[in-house]
Write the structure tokens for this entry.
Amino acid sequence: MSLSAGSIPPAAAPVWTWLPHPHGEPAQPPARAWLAAELGDPDLQVARDGRQRPHLLPPHEAWDCNWSHSGERLLVALARGARVGVDLERLHRRPRALEVAKRYFTDAEANWLAAQDDRDLAFLRLWCAKEAVLKAHGHGLSFGLHRLRFEPSAGEMRLAECDAELGTPEQWRLEEIVPGPGYLGAIAWRPKPL
């Protein structure tokens, strides 16, 4: 199904897909092909800003996109009236998860992680949530994983605190996804002025 510029309301939940992605291949061509099909524009132009964050050129500047790849898969998201970020990770053992969390996450997150039975899964949930928000923001991991704190709430990860440069936690939405066997992902978005 193709989307037109007025087909979904501003700041609606992003649409997303996940695609096969051979290891080592560039992600932008298949991401661009899916975005072009969704927007009904075979001439869709995707550019990168100074931090290499993708963005759509006119006439699609009201839309935002992001993608992430892991293993042999690619996750792509498209949002109207919002900044969107995604992260995709392949599930596997993370023997240093707690060590990484203690060094880069907040103390509260590291303490939560230490109490989890399935530490590998819990670590990836936090990692995907943080990276999705930071990719939507546009600075990525260099902004600092400690500058936003997630906590579990009703079985979902919720942004509880964040640096003022990210806005307020209430502005952010997060959807945790399991797009297929062996993968975990997150899509984060917040409204942006049109």
About this structure: Residues 178 and 184 are 5 Å apart (CA to CA).
